[in-house]
Amino acid sequence: MSAAKLKMIETELDHIERSAEECDHPGGAVALSGILPRSLREWDSRIQFFDHITSELISVSRATQTDEVLSTTKALHSKARKAEHMLNVVLNDLAMPPRETDASIRYVVEDEELLSNTLVQQALVKLALRGPHQIRRLAWFNICRRFPQPLPLAEAGSGHERWGGDELRSLRDELIGKRSSLGPRGTMLEASEASDGYAAKIPELLAVMASSPPEDRNEAAVTLGEIGGEDVAIFLADALQAQLERDGYDDEDYQVYLVSALSNLGGPKAIEGLLQATEKGSERVRLAALSSLEFLATAGSIALTEAPEPAVIENAKMRDAYINLTERLTRLISSGSTPPYVRYKAGELLDTLETSLEHARVPA
Amino acid sequence: MRIMFIDDDRRRMQVHVRELVDRGHEVTFEDNVDSALEMLRDPTKGVDLVVLDISMPPGKAFAFEDTVGGSRTGLTLYDTIRSLQPALKIVALTNVPDRRVAEHFANQDARLCRFVRKPEALPFQFADYVEEFLSGKNDADAT
User: Fold this and answer.
1) Does the model's ipTM exceed the 0.95 cut?
2) What confidence tens digit (pLDDT) does each residue in B99-114 have?
3) Nearest residue of B to residue A235 by CA position?
4) pTM for this one?
5) Is B96 on the interface with A (CB under 8 A)?
6) Distance between CA A132 and CA A120 in Å, rounded?
7) How far apart, in whole angstroms, are the C-alpha atoms of residue B9 and residue B30?
8) Listed residue (B52, B48, B45) closest to B30, CA to CA
9) Measured CA angle at A35 (ends A34, A38), to 5 deg
10) What is the mean pLDDT of chain B?
11) Residues from chain A contacting residue B12 (CB–CB below 8 Å)
C-alpha cells in the first residue's frame, strides 16, 4: 500500500518535472500552463495539491519507518517542495499572496538546478519588473546576485529590445539637455524625483540591465541615473550590493557605472550603497564611490569650481546625515584593510565634511 | 518545553509545529524577525529552544545590506539572539545549501547550537532531534 502510494506521488512529480523541462525555453510559461492539470495552474488549487502530497508522505513515513521508505519519502518531500516553489514563481498570478511569492523566490534562488531553467529565469525578470515593491526588489536583487550573464527576457514586446548603446546615450543626452544644472539630481537627504514623462522607460531599462550585454547594461545604469527617483536608487543600490557580495566575480566597470548613477540619484539608499562600495569594493570602485559621496555632499560644486566647497548645513536632519557619513569615513580610514590611497582620499572628504559641520547653523 | 519557530514560511512549517505540539510541547511561531526579537527581549516570555530559518526578510531590525538582501538574515539573527540569551538552545533549520552557512553553525558551541537541513529530516524526525537536543543526552558526542 505504501509502495503504491509513493509510486503514484513519484509519477505525479515526475510529470511536473518533465513538463518544466519540455517548456524550458523563452516564452515557455504559457506552454507549461497548458500542459499541466488544472489543479496546478492556479494558486488556490495548487496549495491543496501539494499539501495533500505532504500529508500522504508524512503518513506513509510514520506508518512504515524502514530506511528505504524514509529515504524515499524524504526525497519525494524535497522534490514536491521544489516543484511547488518552481510553479509558484513561474505561474505567479495576482491571487498568490506576496508572502508566498517571497518564500518561493527565496527557495528557487538557492537551487542551482532551478536557476538554470529558462522558465525560472524569465519569471524572475518578470517579477522584478512588476508587482509589489517588496517582491520586485527581492527578485531584482537575486537576479543581480546570481546571474552575471544576460538573462532571457520574460516577454517579447517589453520595449527593451530597442535599447542599445547608441539609443541609450541619445536618451541620456536628451535628459541632460533638459536639466538646469550639472550637479547631482538628488541630494544627501533625498533621492531625485523621477523625470516627468519617462516613467515607462524605467522597467524597460531595468530589463536591459538584467538581459543585455555588459556595454548596454552599463549605459542603462547611467541612463537610469538621469531618469529615476527613489525606487530606481533602491534598485541600483541593490545591484551594486549584489555585485559587492559576489564571490569570484568582479565586474569593476559595471560597479563604477552603478556608482556613477547613484551619485546622480542621491538619497539615503544611494548613500548607503556608496558607503558599502567604499568599504567592500576594489580600489578603483572605492575611489569612485568616494568621489560620488563628495559630489553629493558638496552638491556637485566640484563640477564647477574643480575644488569641493563645503556645503552649508542648515537643519538637524542634514547635520545628522553628515555626522553619520563622517563616522563611516573615520571607520574606513582606521580600517587595516583600506588601501593607502583610498585612506588619503577619504581623509580629504572627511576634512570637507568636518568643515561643513563646524560651520553648521544648527545647534549640536 | 517551550519552543519558538522563527520562519517566514508559516504554511510549510506547520507540519513541524504540529508534530511538536502533538508531543506536548508549547510552540509559538513568529513569521518575522521583528516580532521574534520583541518576544525574546521580553523577560516574562521564556523560551527553551529556538528553531531558526536562514533566508527571510530582514524586517526593521536588520539592514538589507547586512543580510545579503534577506538571504542570510538568520545568521545576523542568530548573533543577536545569542547576545540576548547566551544560554538559549538554537537550531538553524534551512533549505540554504551554502556550505558557509553550515560552517558558521558548525563553529558554534554544539551544546547550544545545531544545524539541520530541511530536506534531511521529516517532521517527526526533526521532532526527535529537537527532543534529544533539549535533553542534552548526546552533548558529549556533539562537541
Assistant:
1) no
2) 999 999 999 999 999 9
3) B69
4) 0.91
5) yes
6) 19
7) 10
8) B52
9) 75
10) 93
11) 54, 81, 103
